Amino acid sequence: MRDAEDLIVRLRMANWDLGAFIRRDPDLAGMASTLTGIWLVEDAGLLLAHTGDSRAYLLRDGELTRETRDDSFVQALVDRGLITSDAAWSHPRRNIITASLSGADGDVVRVESRAAALGDRWLLCSDGLTDYVPEAEILSILSSAEDVTKAARQLVDVALEASSRDNITAIVCDVESGAPYETAVPVLAGAAAHRYPEVLEAGLATA
């Protein structure tokens, strides 16, 4: 990835493709997707792209910070001081989102630069995790898991134990030194692994 402008162009193309699928199949009317992702850029920094209520967290020096703002009805209530953050966690309308990728020209994705520091651990996750597992428990798992695969699996398991009724996605990655492993294949677990086995076989898995 060269820079933020390059990423924005690619995201617009992907959203156009999504819209094309929807226009070809009436059964897909109303379909939309959240997006949270990080990309390495040529200057060794990171780009964070986000829309919807999936989240990105950064664990750095033992401190966990949420790096995205939920595009949701409940987050708007919090921003206006109408409810507290604690109340938002269990609000009955917490799954109503206010931004997404739907193939429409007006869809908006925020792209921001982030510094990359050795030892950073990133978590990209869906609300099937964060609506059911407190951030304190997420911090504990990310801090104690010895590698990214175990961290992701433990997070999914904890959400399942909490009786999550939504899609549970957890992607964990560490910032390390050295050249990228261009031939490495990401590990998919859960529903994605069963639905897209050909992606794993081809070594083209993405998140």
UniProtKB/TrEMBL annotation:
<feature type="domain" description="PPM-type phosphatase">
    <location>
        <begin position="1"/>
        <end position="175"/>
    </location>
</feature>
<keyword id="KW-0378">Hydrolase</keyword>
<dbReference type="GO" id="GO:0004722">
    <property type="term" value="F:protein serine/threonine phosphatase activity"/>
</dbReference>
<dbReference type="InterPro" id="IPR036457">
    <property type="entry name" value="PPM-type-like_dom_sf"/>
</dbReference>
<dbReference type="InterPro" id="IPR001932">
    <property type="entry name" value="PPM-type_phosphatase-like_dom"/>
</dbReference>
<protein>
    <submittedName>
        <fullName>Protein phosphatase</fullName>
        <ecNumber>3.1.3.16</ecNumber>
    </submittedName>
</protein>
